[in-house]
Design goal:
This protein is mainly alpha-helical. The chain has 7 helices and no strands.
Amino acid sequence: MHPSHLPAATCIAQGRQQQKRHAGIHAISNPTLADIEKRWEAMPPQEQANLWMALRDRMKTDWHDMTWQEKKASYWIAFGPHGPRALDPPGEGKRIFWSVMAVAALSAVVLAIIRLFARPPPKTMNEQYQKMSNEYLKAQKTEPITGVSSEGYVGKGMVQSKPRRGPPPSDDEE
């Protein structure tokens, strides 16, 4: 039943029961809370949960009634560097850096081996051949409005490769 529908005497009685329940919560012993920062990670999960629940119940009361050890332990359990907020182990950054460098070096070696055993680039992948393709397109009047054959064209056309070393390619070259 909603509290607004209860008689006033019943609401007062329920409030007194809650006060008694909170008043019955006693301070957690100092040995239990001593060096909690050092012992927390080694404690079993059930013991961690029990301690946290006891501290949570203590925090529901007036904070002036809590001991300094309880306040310190409550803050440390809630916000301390443990679990997902734990500090990285020493040397973690260096280990990650060198792992990334090793993977990058390995990939460079694999790329070099692949390039070593790859076929040479096709004869069409050189500047001379691509310039000859531009001349052929102009002679055929390909794309006369916007392409290589248009009046005043200033683009590179088909040229996209570096100049080739050696003589210009012939048609029978493969």
